[in-house]
Amino acid sequence: MKKLILPLAALAFMASCNNAPKNEASDSNATTETSAATANEGIGVIKFEDAAFDFGSIKEGEVVKHDFIFTNTGNAPVILAQVSASCGCTTPKYTSEPVLPGKEGVITVEFNSENQVGQQQKIITVASNAESNIMTVQLKGTVNPKS
Predict the structure, then answer these.
(1) How confident is the model over 117-125, as a mean pLDDT?
(2) Which of 121, 116, 123, 106 lies closest to 66 in space, CA to CA?
(3) Residues in Cβ contact with 7 at an 8 Å cutoff, skipping those fewer than 6 apart
(4) Which of 3, 11, 118, 136 is spaced 20 to 30 A from 127 at the CA atom?
(5) Which residues form the signal peptide (predicted)?
(6) H or E element in which residue 8 lies
(7) CATH number of the domain at 46-144, out of 3.40.190.10, 2.60.40.10, 3.40.1670.10, 2.40.400.10?
(8) How large is the average pLDDT for residues 13-21?
(9) How many CB atoms lie within 10 A of CB 32?
(10) Each residue of 81-117: b (16+ CB within 10 Å) or e?
């Protein structure tokens, strides 16, 4: 009988030891999840009304102007750090003040079609502190040669 009690006591002790790390792991996971949730608080999110604008067909030399309007759907201000175009014929101007949650910002793009005959696709890259910190919008269409 004594031979059975010692192994059973050892087994019970080991079983109780195994429960402690599982509880600590569960507590650790809960802490990690809480930390992750806290880390995600305070992030701005850019949502464009339209991420592409097709200006259709124009004659060479015409200037196309379009406003890319976006809303900050996050819960922290969005700051546009840099907005650049893929070509010197395209000039972006943008909101320089922080865009508060729920508010709108704008990126105005001008495309000068001089010497840009044919199908056109101009990419505008937007760098910000938002959740997706690098985004793109595009301007596209066809430029017909001067008559």
Answers:
(1) 97
(2) 106
(3) none
(4) 118
(5) 1-19
(6) helix 2-40
(7) 2.60.40.10
(8) 43
(9) 10
(10) eebebeeebbebebbeeebebeeebebebebebeebe
* Dihedral sign, Cα of residue 90, residue 95, residue 100, residue 102: negative
Answer whether 46's CB lies under 8 Å from 129's CB.
Answer: no
Reported residue count of the chain is: 147
pTM beyond 0.85: no
Q: Count of CB atoms within 10 A of residue 62's CB?
A: 13
Q: Distance between terminal CA atoms of the chain?
A: 109
